[in-house]
C-alpha cells in the first residue's frame, strides 16, 4: 500500500485542468462494451483505478478495451459471457451497471451482489425493481443477482427511492430500456451531470431518449445501437474538490474545464462561505478575500448540493468563523472523515445525519487514514492547510477517483510526497 506525506502551510497558486468524470465514464464504458455492435472511442477518460477495474470486468465479458493516452477504444462483447464475477464486482460497486445492459443484449445476466462500503449499505432494490418492470425475471441467491428476459418490454415506472432518485438505478434501467420493445418512462430519474452525459452518449449510439437533464426520461426502444465517438464530460466533483483546496489554503487557483452550470449548488455554497469565484468560459478563479464564513449545507440529489462534496465542504468549514451544520441526506453513514479531521484539531460533533462543525483557527498535521474516496480527498485538502506534517494512509481509495492527485496539487505549489506504506 502507499501513503501521502503532506507538509502544509503553502497557499495554492496556478491553474489545474479537471479530468473526465469518473461517474460518467463508468456507465458510458459499459454501454459501449455491451449495448453497442461496433467500436466506440471515448475521449477525456481519466486514468483511475476504477476505470481499470471496470475494463477488467468488461473484458471478462468479452469486450476488448485499449487505452491510448486519454482515449479508450472499446470493441463490444462478441460472445455469450454474461457473468460479472465476485472478485471484480466487490472492488467496485459500479460493476452493477452491467446488469441491465446484459439482460437487454443477451437476455440474461449473473452479477455478484455488490458489497457495502464505508459510506453505508448500498442496496440495489431500485435497479431490480426497474428491470422487473421491464419484464425481466430477477432472482437473488448465493450472493449473486440472476436476471433474464426473452425480450424487455417498455414500461412507465417511478424509480424514486427512500432517499430520492438513484443515480445507479437510473443508469441501469435507462441503458436496458434503449433496446426494449416499446416506450419506457422513468419518473424520479436522477439528474446528475453524469446521467445526462450517459444519455447523450446513448443518443449518439442511436438511442431515442427525451427529457435528458430532467427527472422524467422517455426512452423509445430501438433494434440496435452502433458504436460512436464521445468526449466524457469533466468531473464536477474533482472540480469542487480543487476549488475547496484553493479556498482552504487561501490561495489563488484557476480550475480549468468546468462550467457553473455543472456545479450550481457547489458554486452557490462556496460563495455563501465567502469564497470569491470569478467564472469565465474556460473555468473559474478561486480566492478567499476575507475570513471564511460558517454555512449550513444539506446534501440532496442534483441539482442540490452533492453528497460527494460533503466531506470536502466539511473540511473547509473546520476553518470558518462560526458554527456550520452539515446534513447528509443521501448516504446513511458518510461522516467517517469527521473523526479523522478531529485528529487534526477540528471541532466536529455528530448528531445522527447532522455534523456540527465549530470553526477553529488552525489545523495541525497528523497521521490519518482514508476510509473512502471523498474522505481521503478531504484529508489531503486539510493536510495542505494544516500546520506541520500530515500522513494519509490507504490512499488507494483516493486513486479510485482522482487522477494523480498529488501531481496536480504539487503543480499548484503543494508539498506532497507519495511513499510506500509498510504498515
Ligand atoms: C452514485 O452511487 C455515485 N457512484 C456515488 O459516488 C454517489 O455518492 C451517488 O451516486 C449519489 O450521487 C457512481 O456514480 C459510480 P444512488 P449510486 O443509487 O448509484 C439509495 C463517489 O464518491 N439506493 O444514487 O450507488 C442509496 O442507498 C461515489 O464518486 C436505494 O435505496 O448511488 C443511497 O442512499 C460514492 N436503492 C441513495 O439511494 C437502490 O437500488 C442514492 O444512491 C439504489 C440506491
Can you describe this structure?
This protein has 423 residues and is α/β, with parallel strands linked by helices. It has 14 helices and 24 strands. Strands 22-23-1-24 form a four-stranded mixed sheet. A four-stranded mixed sheet has the order 2-15-17-16, covered by helices on one side. Helix 12 (373-385) links the parallel strand 22 and strand 23 (389-393). The longest helix has 14 residues, at 22-35. It is globular. Bound molecules: ligand EPZ. Ligand EPZ binds next to helix 1, helix 5, helix 6 and helix 12.
Which features would summarize this protein structure in a list?
423 residues; alpha/beta; 4-stranded mixed beta sheet; 24 strands; 31% helix; binds ligand EPZ
User: How many distinct helices?
Assistant: 14
Distance between the termini: 8 Å
The strand count comes to 24
Name the hetero compounds present: ligand EPZ
Précis, in short:
With 423 residues, the chain is α/β, with parallel strands linked by helices.
Walk me through the topology.
Layout: E1 2-7, E2 13-17, H1 22-35, E3 40-43, H2 49-60, E4 64-68, E5 71-75, E6 83-84, H3 86-89, H4 99-106, E7 108-112, H5 125-133, E8 137-141, E9 144-148, E10 156-158, H6 167-177, E11 183-187, H7 193-204, E12 208-210, E13 216-220, E14 229-231, H8 236-248, E15 252-256, H9 264-272, E16 276-280, E17 283-287, E18 297-299, H10 310-317, E19 323-328, H11 336-343, E20 347-351, E21 354-358, E22 367-369, H12 373-385, E23 389-393, H13 396-399, H14 405-410, E24 416-420
Parallel strand pairs: 2-15, 3-14, 6-7, 10-11, 18-19, 22-23
Antiparallel strand pairs: 1-23, 1-24, 3-5, 4-5, 7-9, 8-9, 11-13, 12-13, 15-17, 16-17, 19-21, 20-21
Helix pairs in contact: 1-2, 1-4, 1-7, 4-6, 5-6, 6-7, 8-10, 8-12, 10-12, 11-12
The structure holds ligand EPZ.
Ligand EPZ binds near residues 122, 126, 127 and 166.
